[in-house]
Amino acid sequence: MIEVQGLGKSFTLHNQGGAVIPVLEGARFTVAQGECVALTGASGAGKSTVMRILYGNYLAQAGQVMIGGVDLTAAEPREILALRRDTLGYVSQFLRVVPRVPTLEVVAEPCLAIGMEESAALDRARGLLARLNIPERLWALSPTTFSGGEQQRVNIARGFAHAYPALLLDEPTASLDPQNREVVLSLVEEAKAQGTAIVGIFHDAPARARLADREIDVSAFTPARAA
Ligand SMILES: Nc1ncnc2c1ncn2[C@@H]1O[C@H](COP(=O)(O)OP(=O)(O)OP(=O)(O)O)[C@@H](O)[C@H]1O
């Protein structure tokens, strides 16, 4: 489902004399349907950079990233948007929403975007919000004023609304209480069971041990630095 080959990435700091920071070289891995792969490696090794390349936010200088038949290193912006709508989900700790849109619509939106009937999309959103313990009195309000933990849970509900074939998880259990952490772990397990290919960063080591079938240490892809 996800195939990374010969991936290379460096950053050029144009406002700092054009300094070049090489981060990845020759990165390669694959993630099959129903498999969860955890990215590991010390801080600064490049975990977030790999995730951003996989989501099409950063462009790689070398290599290929195939997700659901689309090569992200060569795709047009509209192809990336279509991939994100249909195939590739991303759950981070942080919610980014349009102000004034009610929570229920925020969560239902990915299902509406793929053409699901409105009543089914709203049912799905209600089910996820209830499961993630967002009080029903909040569903008609915009999540912009919610607490950090509530926003994180709304974001998770939105990320799991549509059963994406591929899913990127950036610390999905960070700062959750034990009960909601357990709900999120179950959602990830259900997605795996449905065949979703998952790449995640989990600083929560017990969560990583439970969910990940394999770990990939991205420091193996650090370019050899000239002495
Ligand atoms: N937009 C950017 N511009 C310049 N350098 C960047 C950029 N993004 C990442 N880097 C550099 O790439 C390297 C890898 O960073 P990255 O955030 O991917 O590491 P990480 O493994 O996710 O670290 P952490 O566990 O601390 O989040 C770092 O040296 C960082 O400074």
Structural summary, described in words:
This protein is an alpha/beta fold and 227 residues long. The chain has one domain: P-loop containing nucleotide triphosphate hydrolases (Rossmann fold), CATH 3.40.50.300. Helices cover 34% and strands 25% of the residues. It has helices spanning 47-54, 77-86, 103-113, 118-131, 148-159, 178-193, 205-211; strands spanning 2-13, 19-31, 36-40, 62-67, 70-71, 88-91, 166-170, 197-201, 214-217. The protein has a five-stranded parallel sheet. Helix 3 (103-113) crosses helix 4 and helix 3 (103-113) runs parallel beside helix 5 (148-159). The longest helix is centred in the last third of the chain and has 16 residues, at 178-193. The chain starts with a strand and ends in a 10-residue tail after the last strand. Bound molecules: adenosine-5'-triphosphate (ATP).
Explain the layout of strands and helices.
Blueprint: E1 2-13, E2 19-31, E3 36-40, H1 47-54, E4 62-67, E5 70-71, H2 77-86, E6 88-91, H3 103-113, H4 118-131, H5 148-159, E7 166-170, H6 178-193, E8 197-201, H7 205-211, E9 214-217
Parallel strand pairs: 3-8, 3-9, 6-7, 7-8
Antiparallel strand pairs: 1-2, 1-4, 4-5
Helix pairs in contact: 3-4, 3-5
This protein binds adenosine-5'-triphosphate.
Adenosine-5'-triphosphate binds near residues 23, 45, 46, 47 and 48.
